[in-house]
């Protein structure tokens, strides 16, 4: 609408009429005469408001056609992995399920904007699954054979403090808050807050024993951890005395 209207007439000839005294619309020199119907009111108003439309050259539409050659392409699940960067990110998430965005950014050699764009693109086409937990977005490959309980546990094991607490409770079923805090070398308040979170997830069960509250691992999560232990190589460390949790956190399937 903001284009400057430009008109270029090949030739116009104006001369006095020679049909004086005759009925308007009659042929003067044998030319073909055709009556022109008046334009509709809506078209008259449109052309009055936007006169540029009457003289805009067709060349002004060429940029619209050129937009198709600028690399625009609708991304869908079938062609999303044509990008080498997205393929690498997807392989990384498959090997490291449950990592949150900031940790992926720290370990993947991409800028924040580029990584965010590719992650959101793969999420929108159904290649990635996200879980929001404690204010952080954790990523899994869509369709990965993890149950909801396994996903909860994998996310918890990605946190070093939670991993140490889960390990301690697994090895010492029925331990109280003070015992756990001493063994994992964390403050009692910190351990209490983490255990409350694990209780909400259903990972830990609390049972009062007089003035002491003792914690055990839920049976279903104990089975999951045992299954993980059989699929992992020993990786003993101070934070992992059992040797069944890998330094990276969890196994991939």
From TrEMBL:
<dbReference type="InterPro" id="IPR056504">
    <property type="entry name" value="HTH_HVO_0163_N"/>
</dbReference>
<dbReference type="InterPro" id="IPR036388">
    <property type="entry name" value="WH-like_DNA-bd_sf"/>
</dbReference>
<dbReference type="GO" id="GO:0003700">
    <property type="term" value="F:DNA-binding transcription factor activity"/>
</dbReference>
<protein>
    <submittedName>
        <fullName>Transcriptional regulator, ArsR family</fullName>
    </submittedName>
</protein>
<dbReference type="InterPro" id="IPR036390">
    <property type="entry name" value="WH_DNA-bd_sf"/>
</dbReference>
<dbReference type="Pfam" id="PF24266">
    <property type="entry name" value="HTH_HVO_0163_N"/>
</dbReference>
<dbReference type="Pfam" id="PF13412">
    <property type="entry name" value="HTH_24"/>
</dbReference>
<dbReference type="InterPro" id="IPR001845">
    <property type="entry name" value="HTH_ArsR_DNA-bd_dom"/>
</dbReference>
<feature type="domain" description="HTH arsR-type">
    <location>
        <begin position="142"/>
        <end position="237"/>
    </location>
</feature>
<dbReference type="InterPro" id="IPR011991">
    <property type="entry name" value="ArsR-like_HTH"/>
</dbReference>
């Amino acid at each position: 609408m903001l284009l400057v209207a430009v008109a270029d007439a090949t030739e116009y000839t104006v001369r006095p009429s020679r049909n004086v005294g005759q009925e308007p619309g009659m042929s003067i020199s044998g030319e073909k005469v055709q009556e022109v119907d008046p334009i509709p009111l809506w078209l008259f108003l449109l052309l009055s408001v936007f006169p540029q439309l009457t003289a805009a050259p067709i060349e002004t539409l060429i940029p619209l056609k050129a937009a198709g050659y600028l690399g625009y392409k609708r991304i869908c699940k079938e062609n999303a992995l044509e990008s080498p960067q997205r393929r690498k990110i997807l392989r990384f998430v498959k090997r490291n399920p449950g990592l949150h965005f900031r940790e992926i950014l720290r370990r993947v050699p991409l800028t924040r904007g580029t990584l965010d764009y590719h992650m959101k693109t793969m999420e929108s086409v159904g290649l990635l699954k996200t879980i929001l937990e404690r204010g952080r977005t954790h990523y899994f490959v869509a369709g990965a054979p993890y149950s909801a309980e396994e996903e909860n546990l994998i996310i918890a094991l990605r946190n070093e403090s939670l991993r140490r607490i889960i390990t301690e409770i697994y090895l010492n079923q029925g331990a109280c808050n003070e015992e756990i805090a001493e063994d994992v070398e964390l403050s009692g308040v910190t351990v209490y807050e983490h255990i409350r979170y694990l209780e909400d997830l259903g990972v830990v069960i609390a049972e009062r024993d007089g003035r002491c509250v003792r914690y055990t691992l839920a049976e279903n999560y104990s089975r999951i951890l045992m299954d993980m232990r059989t699929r992992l190589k020993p990786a003993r460390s101070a934070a992992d005395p059992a040797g069944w949790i890998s330094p990276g956190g969890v196994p991939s399937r």
